[in-house]
């Protein structure tokens, strides 16, 4: 199980690193926030599952699982709140800027 855990942790790290490169390639706020939300959800869940497989005791794996579930619930909610507040405050794309 430790090899599978290490592979998942490495895959999550690679996903997060590639997502950060993609983050700097986008030019507008809405595309960047979408990218950060995907990095947060997918990269984190891969690393957490890897940590659960690599954990020394089942109790520690359960704690990691609880943290993963809470992060999966709160991450998209916070992204939605940020996007909603930007829209309500009147943030618009500049002329000529693509989504």
Folded structure, characterized:
With 99 residues, this protein is mainly alpha-helical. It has one domain. The protein contains three helices and no strands. α1 runs antiparallel to α2 (29-54) and α2 packs antiparallel against α3. The mean pLDDT is 88.
Number of strands: 0
Largest sheet: none
Low-confidence stretches: none
Q: N- to C-terminal separation?
A: 42 Å
- Structural class by sheet pairing and helices: mainly alpha
CA-atom Rg in angstroms? 17 Å
Strand fraction band?
under 5%
Shape: elongated
Number of helices: 3
* Count of the separate structural domains: 1
Sequence of secondary-structure elements: HHH
Percent of residues in helical segments?
over 70%
Average residue pLDDT: 88
What is the multimeric organization of the chains shown?
Answer: single chain
């Amino acid at each position: 199980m430790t090899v599978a855990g290490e592979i998942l942790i490495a895959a999550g790290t690679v996903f997060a690193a590639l997502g950060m490169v993609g983050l700097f390639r986008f030019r507008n706020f809405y595309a960047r926030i979408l990218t950060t939300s995907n990095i947060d959800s997918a990269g984190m869940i891969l690393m957490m599952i890897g940590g659960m497989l690599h954990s020394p005791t089942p109790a520690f794996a359960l704690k990691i699982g609880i943290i993963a579930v809470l992060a999966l619930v709160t991450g998209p909610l916070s992204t939605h709140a940020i996007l909603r507040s930007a829209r309500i405050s009147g943030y618009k794309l500049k002329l000529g800027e693509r989504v």
